[in-house]
Amino acid sequence: MPVAVPELGSFNFVPETKEDLEWAELVTLDFALLDTPEGRQQLIQTLIKAVREAGFFYVKNFNISQERVNRQFALGKRFYELPLEEKLKYVPEGLDNGKFNGYIPAGRRILDPVSGLRDRVEMYNIPKFDGYFTHNHPVLIQEHLAEIEEFSKAKVLDPLHVLLANALELPEDYFLKLHKYEEKSEDHLRYMKYSKYTPEENLKHGKLWVQGHTDLGTFTLLFRQPVAALQIKNHITGEWKWVKPQDGTLTVNACDALSFLTGGYVRSTIHRVVSPPKDQEHVDRLGLLYFQRPNNNVRLATVQDSPVLQREGYTQNDFEKSGNPVPTMEEWTFAKQKWQRTKNIVRSDPKYETAQILPGWREKVYA
Questions:
Q1: Which of 80, 89, 69 is nearest to 191 (CA)?
Q2: Are 259 and 268 a contacting pair, CB within 8 Å?
Q3: In Å, how far from its chain's centre is CA 242?
Q4: Distance CA 270, CA 214 (A)
Q5: Where is the Isopenicillin N synthase-like Fe(2+) 2OG dioxygenase domain (predicted)?
Q6: DSSP state for residue 98 in the 8-state scheme
């Protein structure tokens, strides 16, 4: 008997916090400036400042309507309303070994060893539509798969790759060639849910939902949602500050693979998720994200063709400095994913937090 698919309905965002938080000062790239040489030059300078200093930045006029974004949030909301037993049918085989497409249930990490309080983070990852991945989803997702595919394929990131190539005095298509959509890579769209804790529970785990970390890919896109919880660590000052949700923008952060490819010139952003302020503490936090990664066969060696990197002395990444083999993107992805998905780890376990995941690379977490 076929399962009835409910209508998505509208998605209602909660009001923004009224608390006076210490917001990070982030730059905004306006893609409307791409049309003129002067505008492009301004964007290049802005992008370099962003990826060298704060790591996070905003993008506006990115050619996806708010209506389409709202539809994806509505889909994510409806997905998390499915019964747990239905969602558990889509846990990836090999989750403990780094597989991640499908449903990742909450509770894999112990936040407070005294009370046994565990994380309440759920994820649903939808892989690329490039022919390399089997799309086996709940009926709700399957019925809207064409819409999800169209959303996932939006050319949001291409301008960033062209601008970065310009900034490093490389051919414009240099980074585009490393991120061809038709070639296999581990990009994915994610619906992510952080279920709320009581005020008492938040105190037990120090109001820290997800410890400071870096993402493993090229760029991560965070579509605006107003529950304040994301904080970033400034590369220069070391201070943690809140990331403000801004209307009509994407929040973007630079990630590990881009740092490797540029010998550390681009800094991988350190960020964490904390308990929302008191006027938002009573709601769950739903995230809509897109994770981009270079094609699986790309070796993460420092680009040697950039006059800028040569002049500035960014000619080796940590793998190259250590004399160990430089991994491909596929090797790096699954090494880090396996580490991230380690089950029943107690927060602050030093054996986990500084584990060597590949020869020449020890992981790091930040308070």
A1: 80
A2: yes
A3: 16
A4: 5
A5: 194-293
A6: T
- Mean predicted confidence (pLDDT) in 81-97: 95
pLDDT, tens digit, for every residue of 233-274? 988 889 999 999 888 899 999 999 999 999 999 999 999 999
CB-count burial class (<10 Å; 0-12, 13-18, 19+) for 218: buried
Contact between 269 and 136 under an 8 Å Cβ cutoff? The reply is no
pLDDT of residue 348: 87
Distance of alpha carbon 241 from alpha carbon 115, whole angstroms: 29
pLDDT tens for each residue of 3-36? 444 467 667 788 999 999 999 999 999 999 999 9
166 three-state secondary structure: helix
Q: Any residues with CB less than 8 A from the CB of 305 and at least 6 apart, and which?
A: 170, 174
- pLDDT at position 9, please? 65
DSSP 179-200: T-TTS----EEEEEEE----HH
Crossing angle between the packed helical segments 37-49 and 158-167, to the nearest 10 degrees: 80
Tokens standing for 208?
């820290």
> Exposed/middle/buried for 163, CB within 10 Å: 0-12, 13-18, 19+?
buried
First-residue to last-residue Cα distance in the chain: 50
Q: With a cut of 70, say whether residue 2 has pLDDT above it.
A: no
Q: Which residue has the tokens 């169209």?
A: 150
Residue 204: Cβ within 10 Å count = 15
CB 188 within 8 A of CB 148: no
Which residue in 225, 227, 166 sits closest to 43, CA to CA? Answer: 166
> 296 and 186 in contact (C-beta within 8 Å)?
yes
**What's 326's DSSP letter?**
P
Instruction: Give domain 28-362's CATH number out of 3.40.50.360, 2.60.120.330, 1.10.486.10, 2.40.50.140.
Output: 2.60.120.330
Question: For residues 174 and 276, what is the distance between their CA atoms, to the nearest angstrom?
Answer: 40
**Residue ranges per domain, the chain?**
28-362
Contact 233, 203 (CB under 8 A): no
